[in-house]
């Protein structure tokens, strides 16, 4: 899969081009402790290399320069005893299928030799300061060697325009990984529904989610983004993730959480009653959001526009706001004046893949892009009524509801990758009643 991506990138290059990519390094968490390593997404997409401080050069039609070169940390048995095994250059050729490989301290020398022969350079300026300044100083160095018949490349091009566009279209192999991330994440949400009880804390539910992600082999930390476990009014903070509060009887719990499997994300939101049973007001809001989501999913079809789901969703949410007594105007007026915006707040869709908010163009010059098979996007409408919002009927206050699934655009009907996550009122209540086995635990009450 990774080699195929490199070949496609090379196909889109011209003779005389080189492309440079720098992988992620380690980031310090505190003192001498590092965050779990996560490879930069495009680097992973093109290399399949999970080691830090790696770099890559692709070259096309340049005399004496191989097409696919990777630079990795050198083998170092003493160091590896402490911090883990490394492939080394030989291992990189064998395991990742590169034409050639070097220790990463040879990157500058090899790239400078290639730059002297290249007409154009593809890179992602602004991503890595060290690479940027090396590239600029190398170019300046080549200018100074004009008398030796050397000249710098004539153009620097944004590698993102190729690799981001490639990443918009998921291959069958990538889709299988996304289905796996989705299945694990659905299971995590179902376990959370089954285990949730009034008096538990948001972090206990977070722990069940992350347990499920890791248990089924999700990457490093397990999650694709910090999990949002938001009880009651916390659901009205869109990216709430401190997850430290107690869950109250009679409140809803909004969970926005997805695992990351071999770097591919899932992104699921479900909102369910802490005590397992919807109150009439909770159900009324929920049914509006659910109707909006189902209608928006139904337009995730090849040939439709990327933002069509957002428009469809807003029409249904606006109508719901009128039915709920929040808006006191006509539907046309609500949409025309965006009167709904205070309670609908965010967009409905984003691409998803190696990054939860995946790269790729969805709109250009103000025009929404047409959907094509192989794209995957979320559909995630919500309604948010903060506890202190005295412009809405009292019974709605302190409730925030979002419902989110990951949808694959096919040649036919939309494929909901996260369809296994309970979603209708009846299914959610059933999932809340279900016996789903939790990991063995200490009695938390005794520890506190
Ligand atoms: N989990 C972030 C989002 O839904 O976009
Ligand atoms: Mn999302
Ligand atoms: Mn989400």
CATH topology name of the largest domain, in short, is: Creatine Amidinohydrolase
Q: How many independent structural domains?
A: 2
Major sheet strand order: 6-5-4-1-7-8
N→C terminal distance: 48 Å
Small molecules held by this entry: glycine, manganese (II) ion
Main sheet attributes: strand count, strand direction, barrel closure: 6 strands, mixed
Overall pLDDT metric: 95
Indicate the CATH class of the largest domain.
Alpha Beta
CATH superfamily of the largest domain: Creatinase/methionine aminopeptidase superfamily
Output the structural class.
alpha+beta
User: Can you tell me the CATH architecture of the largest domain?
Assistant: Alpha-Beta Complex
Beta strands, count: 20
Unreliable segments (pLDDT under 50, ≥5 consecutive)?
A: none
Shape field: globular
**Portion of residues within helices:** 25-40%
């Amino acid at each position: 899969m990774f080699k195929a991506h490199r070949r496609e990138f090379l196909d889109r290059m011209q003779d005389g081009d080189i492309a440079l990519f720098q992988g992620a390094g380690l980031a310090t968490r505190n003192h001498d402790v590092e965050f779990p390593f996560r490879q930069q997404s495009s680097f992973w997409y093109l290399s399949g290399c999970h080691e830090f401080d790696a770099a890559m050069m692709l070259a096309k039609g340049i005399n004496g320069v191989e097409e696919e070169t990777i630079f990795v940390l050198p083998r170092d048995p003493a160091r590896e005893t402490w911090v883990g095994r490394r492939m080394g250059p030989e291992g990189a050729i064998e395991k990742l299928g590169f034409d050639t490989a070097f220790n990463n301290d040879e990157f500058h020398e090899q790239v400078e030799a290639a730059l002297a022969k290249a007409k154009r350079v593809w890179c992602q300026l602004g991503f890595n300061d060290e690479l940027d300044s090396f590239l600029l100083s190398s170019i300046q160095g080549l200018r100074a060697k004009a008398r030796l018949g050397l000249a710098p490349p004539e153009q620097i091009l944004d590698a993102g325009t190729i690799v981001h566009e490639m990443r918009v279209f998921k291959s069958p192999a990538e889709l299988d990984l996304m289905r796996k991330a989705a299945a694990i994440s659905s299971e995590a949400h179902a376990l959370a529904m089954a285990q949730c009880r009034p008096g538990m804390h948001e972090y206990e539910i977070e722990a069940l989610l992350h347990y499920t992600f890791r248990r089924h082999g999700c990457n490093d930390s397990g999650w694709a983004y910090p999990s949002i476990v938001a009880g009651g009014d916390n659901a009205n903070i869109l990216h709430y993730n401190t997850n430290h509060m107690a869950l109250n009887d009679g409140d809803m719990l909004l969970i926005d959480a997805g695992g990351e499997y071999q770097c591919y994300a899932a992104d699921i939101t479900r909102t369910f009653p802490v005590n397992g049973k919807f109150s009439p007001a909770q159900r009324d809001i929920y049914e509006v959001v659910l109707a909006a989501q189902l209608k928006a999913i139904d337009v995730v079809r090849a040939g439709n526009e990327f933002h069509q789901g957002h428009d469809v969703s807003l029409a249904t949410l606006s109508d719901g706001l009128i039915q709920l007594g929040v808006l006191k105007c006509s539907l046309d007026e609500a949409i025309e004046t965006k009167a709904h915006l205070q309670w609908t707040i965010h967009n409905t869709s984003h691409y998803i893949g190696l990054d939860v908010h995946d790269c790729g163009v969805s709109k250009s010059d103000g025009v929404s892009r047409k959907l094509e098979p192989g794209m995957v996007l979320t559909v995630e409408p919500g309604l948010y009524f903060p506890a202190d919002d005295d412009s809405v009927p009292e019974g709605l206050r302190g409730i925030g509801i979002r419902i989110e699934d990951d949808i694959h655009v096919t040649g036919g009907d939309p494929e909901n990758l996260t369809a296994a996550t309970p979603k209708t009122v009846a299914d959610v209540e059933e999932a809340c009643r279900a016996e789903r086995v939790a990991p063995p635990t200490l009695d938390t009450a005794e520890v506190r």
